[in-house]
Queue: 2 jobs
Job 1
Amino acid sequence: MTSYHAQRRASLIARYVLLALLAALWLFPIVWIVLASFSYNDTGFVSTIWPKQFTLSNYTGIFTSTQFPFVYWIRNTLFVSLVSMVLSTFVTISVAYALSRLRFRFRKPYLQIALVLGMFPGFMSMIALYYILKSFNMLNLGGLILVYVGGAGLGFYIAKGFFDTIPRSIDEAAEIDGASRWQVFLHIGLPMSKPIIVYTALTAFIAPWTDFIFSGIILSSSGNAKTYTIAYGLYNMVHATKGTSTTYFTWFIAGCVVIAVPITILFIIMQKFYVNGITAGADKG
Amino acid sequence: MFKKKSNLPPAATYKEVWQKGDLSFKLSFFFMGLAQLKRRQWAQGISLLGLELAFIGWLSFSGVSALGMLSNLGANKTKRVVFDNAQGVYLTKLPDNSVVILLFGVLAVILVLAMIGLYIASLRSLRTLYVQVRDGEHVATNREQLRSLLDSRLHLTLMVIPIIGVMAFTVLPTLYMISMAFTNYDSKHPIGFSWTGFKAFGNVLTGDLAGTFFPVLGWTLVWAVCATVTTFFFGVLLAMLIESKGITHKGLWRTLFVIVYAVPQFVSLLMMAQFLDLQGPLNTLLMNWGWISHPINFIGASANATVARITVIVVNMWIGIPVSMLTSTAIIQNLPQDQIEAARMDGANPFQVFRHITFPQILFVMAPALIQQFIGNINNFNVIFLLTGGYPMNNNYNGAGDTDLLVTWLYNLVFGQTQRYNASAVLGILIFIISATVSLLAYRRTNAFKEG
């Protein structure tokens, strides 16, 4: 009996050690990014794990720089993500609710077209989007919001999967009592779907903070760094201005850490919904 | 609540509406909404009539010319110097801007198709109205019709704005790019280009780009398989480790791993590229420990192709395993325990239980999600673009490097120096065909598996 206990104890310790090692391995590069953001460095290069000299100057630098208007970037991104969050959530929830709870003639075609459109690489449409927005003089933050909201009508899968799980009998009971479908949507559908609304809103909010491609194509033509969003601004800092700005590399890292922290926290809050969404989609096949 | 579609013939044919309806019905075949207006259905009548008038107005002012120019994408293809009589000077005349002509042509086609759809819908509603009038049934009032938008026709209210958005920002660009694949839009024809049929497809499949296309396609498929399998397999193992008996604070352990995925990819991957650099911290560390004598060139411009490819797959594991760990955790928690218990009773060791019971069950539930991941990996732009940028360079390739996937190559063809816009559109279509085929085959197989 004791040997059995000892064996189980050894196995538990071994598993804890393995888990701790893996976690350390996984977090090691992340920790290094945070450390590098505090390192004093003017070579544009971080070649050590532990900084030789700690400093806060990267953070003060990026916030006060005139060449890299970091505060403007945050303001722009906040504007884009808040507006796009409200509009996209409205669009996504409307579509998901209609496709899940209502039956109408173009429901099936819409689902099929959405499936087909989803298989084209998103980059294919970039040139076209550029010219569409250019011909309407919308190569600015407003155009960027339109692009995000325009795509929201196809991102309904997770929300639809959620609505599919709410039993229909509730709707039917309300309709027998004389409620219109709008009232059912407003007073039954929406209150029951708070978690999925939160998830949809958070996803829409996060997207502009991490997207450097579409924002780059739409905003780069202005050439005015003050109109950039944060993801493109930071990306541009290390790529478009290669060579001249290597001295600002640690500023770039500091900027990344500043936005990565809130995004990471938001994502960790969302992880539960994320799992539910994926497995709900998996069930349907 | 959801009535089954009735298979009865319609109460009236369109022929009957045309022959027996009053003048307003007859005119409604040409001017939508007149019959509705006569029955005081103001909202429906005015919107139908207004949309038709707006469409005719647009068609006569710009629609016809937009459709007409679509045939040759603008007559002037080259830059010319012409004599301007009015000013008496020579002027340089730029070629017609085919990009804009094509865009508005595609837009015009979409609008015409939308109008045809609207016309059919209006005929349908006209027939309903006719039957109501003929049989002396109650004809809906304007107020009742408006109210139905919140009840029996709520789907219209909810879907109209999203559909306009999808049309403008997904359907239009996609159709536009598909049509671009059939032109000669490239660096030699940057402004005025023309239709060239399947020539661009020929260039990619057998012409000067074939030497790049097939190797890149091969690597894309290898990458997609490796990336999907590694993240899935090790994700399941990690999930089982965290879920195993005796481990406490499971949520905390999971969160530690998820942090990696939660960090925006342009941060984590750009920094990873720095981390793995020839002079980066990893090489410094390994050399300090004395494990290597020379720095390893993981992902640089002159790295070894195989080393770079393995590095990319390993870094993708770093980012991808936490996600598949999260998803498989949910499945592991819901696995039926009875089979596992029974197998244990029969003396199966933990490895056998995993190999023959747990893993197949997870695979079964996850199959559709895995197909999605596979397609996602074919199109995995971020990992390659941010980490290696396609490096190491390969002189045998045209505009691509050894780690470039089809999507990153597509990006290079557009935004790089080669400017082969038509070839990039061809690539997009080919990627679509690959994704569609893979998912079609896979769904077929999994469905058969489920039913069997």
Note: The mean pLDDT of chain A is 83.
Job 2
Amino acid sequence: MHSAATAGDFFFLSRIWLIPLFPAFGAAMMFFFGRRLQKATVSAICVGVVVVAFLFACFTVNDYTHFAHGTGQPFEKIVYTWLGSGDGHLTFLKKDGSAAAFNADAGFLLDPLSAIWLLFVTGVGMLIHIYSVGYMAHEGGYYRFFGYLNLFMFAMLTLILANNYILMFVGWEGVGLCSYLLIGFYFHRKSASDAANKAFIVNRIGDAGFILGALTLVWYLGSFRFTDLNPLLRSGHFAIGDPVLTAAALLLFVGACGKSAQLPLYVWLPDAMEGPTPVSALIHAATMVTAGVYMVARSNAIFVLAPTAMKTVAIVGALTAIFAASIGLVQNDIKRVLAYSTVSQLGYMFLALGVGAFAAGVFHVFTHAFFKALLFLGSGSVIHAMSGEQDMKFMGDLRQRTPTTFWTMFIGMLAIAGIPGLAGFFSKDEILWQSWSSEGGAYRVLWFVGFATALMTAFYMGRLIFLTFFGKPRMSHEVEHHIHESPKSMTVPLVILAICSVAAGWLGVPPSLGGSNPFGKFLEPVFAKEAHVMQVEEPRQLAAGEKEEEHTDPMEYTLMGLSVGAAIVGLGLAWRAYAHAGKDYKEPIAQAAPPLYKVLYNKWFVDEAYDYAFTGRRKVGDVRLGVLGLGEASSWFDAKIIDGIVNDAGWVTRAVATLSTWWDKWIIDGLLVNGPAVLSRFLSYPARLFEWGLVQWYALVMTAGLVGFAVYYVWK
Amino acid sequence: MQNHILSIILFTPLIGALVLLFVPKENKAAIRWIANLFALGGFLISLPLVPRFWATLGDTSHQFKFLEGTVNNWIPSIGAGYNLGIDGISFLLIMLTTLLGWISILSSWTAIEIRVKEYYIWFLVLQTGMLGVFMALDFFLFFVFWEAMLVPMYLLIGIWGGPRKLYAAIKFFLYTLLGSVLMLLGILFLYFHHHTLTGVFTFSIPELYKTAPQIPFATAVWLFLAFFLGFAIKVPMFPFHTWLPDAHVEAPTAGSVILAGVLLKMGTYGFVRFSLPFFPQVITNTSSTFMSLTVRGWMIGLSIVGIVYGALVSLMQKDMKKLVAYSSVSHLGFCTLGIFALNQAGLSGSVLQQINHGISTGALFLIVGILYERRHTREIAEYGGISNVMPIYATITMIMFLSSMGLPLLNGFVGEFTILQGAFTANWRWAAWAAPGVVLAAAYLLWLYQRVFFGTVTNPKNEKLHDLTPREILTFAPLIICAFWIGLYPKPFFQILEQPVNQIVQTIQTASPNVNAGAPRLAPFQTWDSSTHPNSALNNAPSPAQQASAAAPTKASN
């Protein structure tokens, strides 16, 4: 590999494998010594390793830009053979009957795609670590919390930097584990441990899809390595719509649905808000939940060859976006609104990927990481100020008492709503425009779904901010008395994230607005090659990136205007309804359509339906369905039928033995052996009359006999 | 001495048992110390085998290494020999046995208070029996060890067990005996068949390998079934598994550890060592079916049912130990799935998973045993919030649960994934059907964890539980180290398994070249076999001449 030859010239790049190991070291320190360390030492170690990882990542990406010179050539560093014997003798048969080596490396890959994730994961991760020092200052299990956070950083970085699907899966399951541990951080609460279990098990369903997808790929193509797979897939040997690749893509997407909370596997994410708020910000908003987007983007060469899978991704993404947004409209728990918002925004990202606008999807991941982390950390700051209260019904009028939190969250709201000039505007509009224009307009209905979602997004975010910071104070006096702005370690990250929420968007200003979209340019090499494939096979399917540059359709400005209008209308509606909310404020949806409100408030009753149909925690009448129903049936079958047969076999053996004993005693021994004895005893009875064993009698008889004989002879 | 390393490993525990005979039974402390000394010694003495075996990896001309004894040297009149020898598969299982033997004896220190002397004596005898099974290269010797193992286990359950110990012990004994009697018939057939062909009476396994292909197909099917029943009960495969939960629940903790960790592997070892090489034509045949499934189809089907069914039943258990016992059914289903995938990945994954199961499930039984020793109940409902009072214990439990459910970077994942890869390349549907087992494993283990460890302590009896003692931590430490080792760097294990696994795959392909076994053609691994003629590895019977030549260089080096 020619990259390996030059790797030595780059100090940081050639040591890329150290990046995940820094936080792993922190986690190990907490595991072994955490209990004995002071809080200050814990913070120093755990925040320190993430800062080091962030700096190291920056230098590595800097090295990488010198290494690749804008060609996007991936840098690969294989540390050792992880799975397999490493000598090529452990093989398997591919689908075409040829043999390939069974092999997965502990290897690391850096290309523009992983570079972007690397930077924002370590960057946002670092800010959230700093924030946590303040947020968790008075909590028990401080070292445990930071140990888990560091472990999460290790897993997430492994996921991002892996050079093959199986090492990626290490990170994939690893972040799932950390998510489980952190959701269940307050393990005394049953709701927290329930939510943790739900998250892990739902994710496992996705993980099974991921593994099967990866196995399909390796069976078909012979390698898990991205650098082997991508050239092969782009070589033109595979037809568009290849059924095996379609299956692989769909299976991988099942994995993405689990991790990135898409329909129908999104149910775990809202419940995941049981974890501490920094966790919600880091894992359940900014980084982990984007892993599915990352994986699909990483697998773009496969998805491009599988139009059915692409359509599925787009449709699932759009449906998730509007579905989750609809629930977010009426929720009262501040973190839950943000959770549904996250699900909805992830839907946007998948919509982008599904219509082939990979760069736009990744761009939205990038901007979303900042403003959603900001909003979550802001909500954490609010909850902190409110002495733990999360219900917005009991908030209000916080803007003067927590000014930094207010201003930063306000910026976050504008960003996510898509107000021009802020990050969300650029990324969201690009997605909407791509879904309008790609495939010759085949997806326009998806554009409409996205547009409606944008309106809803603006409304529920406005509702969140106005209910929290405006209107009349609705909390109890005791709580009101304690309201205070959060410490510096919490507000400084908020300010930095607010700045990023504005600035990040300017990295991807599209040509139509006079920008040059450097973000898209940077990513182009990752996605450009399949654009070529698409053009060759189907001229109508133009690639996202290329099209965007050539295009200056007036329609684009119209759509842009429409979505800005939607944002303003949404915020305006929210302002009208909530800006002056007193203690008896009314929900406009509840007044307009009470049944709809009920359905939305109860989250479309999806959790209940799942409990009836899939988990079996609720009975349908007297019957238990789902996994628990199957489990009950299996247990009954095992105890009564299978073990029943075994015990019956034992019983039959004993019965036969008893019968044999009886037969032996009464027939063989009784009738056949003792029978003749009894018979002879009986028959000998007359004879025995004369012989009763008295010797004197015998003597008498003998004497009598003798006398008889003597008398006879004498007589004669 | 170099040639007798296997015998030394084999008889160290037995010598310990003999020494214990001379210790007065009142002196419990001395008995415990001596037993632990011999158990630890048995483990330490097996460690030199690791570098020595590693050094033989390059020698691919011999299937079995460290050969001891000559054919028929024990009872020449019937052709039985004291022949020992190991390959990569038995090597790993032997190391597992010596490790788990030491750990389970160490874990019994405070758990066993009655008939202490007899307990340790039987445990050490059991240890020798198990090691013998993995070392024997002679069917007669093998069968002696196989049966010799049964009696100590029967006594361990029957004397030191729980409330229903007699039922469990007798069920275990009779069920297993039923299988082994049929296997004995199979062995005797092979023995007489060999005599018919060659005029020689011998129980030597490598010799019998040579004549097995000449067995007529119709007979081979019955022989396969006889062996199958013996092994399937031992594994246990669905639906022959119901002795297992009873035996586990009633057995003392150390007995469960050995039962799950090693005894179950006898079945899978039997499949790999005997069923596959002796009857490849039966397993790969596609013409004769029973209820429209081929022999292999049945094997795979039972494995998959075992995986999912075992997990489902596990989910519903109210007794922790029973839950772990049923999870073994599920895990062993993966092992048999890998075996009958009949390809390199499946087989290596299967053997690796057998080791992993020994480590993880062994640890799970220790974990249950620790709570049982403190509270004398295994009812899940009796617990809750244990992580508040026993944090170290809770952490170790979490690690072992994660290892058991196959989390990457821990051992379970490596085995499971390799098996799934093997199954997938053989037939993608098999992997797809087995996948729910992975999800369910997370469900039953995490739910158990939640009910036992999370929440607050609600039962006042749990408030004063003390955390792990240093001795208890010591029992877990080697298992945790192994779990991480296999998870992070399994390469040496794959290298050790490469030769024996390739051998089996080659045997299968020689028997039926066209079978859709999903196994590689000969080409990829010609490199290791090209130096000798194709069957040399199989012809590697420990005949006197070969023994002499094999022994010669080692003697010279001394």
Note: Chain A touches chain B through 58 residues (CB under 8 Å).
